[in-house]
Design a protein that fits this description.
single chain; 115 residues; alpha+beta; GMP Synthetase, Chain A, domain 3
Length: 115
């Protein structure tokens, strides 16, 4: 990935975070962290990875966010200075949960070794 592509990715993360926090009025969408964006080289498609802190039903919140995709893309088009605003696809980023599970497993293994 070149420098320009990396800059576009980080700009999209910043703008989508702002849009979700300040422009979407749906009270069901809360505590969302946009963790990453992967935009294709021709800017036609963007994978947006999100994490829901403290949410019981992350998949339900992801579906609600997917329904707001058109609004988010329109807002993004107004904020960005690029020729083509990519089509957005939202994906659940479960890296944090996997890391917690791995740390717990390692701690349990260490505790067994001490016994």
């Amino acid at each position: 990935m070149n420098h320009r592509q990396s800059r576009v990715n980080s700009t999209i993360v910043k703008h989508i975070t702002d849009i979700i926090q300040f422009s979407i009025k749906n009270p069901q969408i809360r505590f969302i962290t946009v963790t990453d964006a992967q935009v294709t080289a021709d800017h036609t498609y963007a994978k947006i990875f999100v994490s829901f802190m403290g949410a019981e039903d992350s998949l339900k919140q992801l579906e609600i966010l997917k329904k707001a995709k058109g609004f988010i893309r329109t807002e993004l088009a107004q904020r960005m200075d690029i020729y083509k605003v990519p089509d957005l696809a939202f994906f659940l980023d479960d890296t944090f949960e996997k890391a917690e599970k791995l740390e717990k497993t390692i701690a349990e293994a260490k505790a067994k070794l001490k016994k």
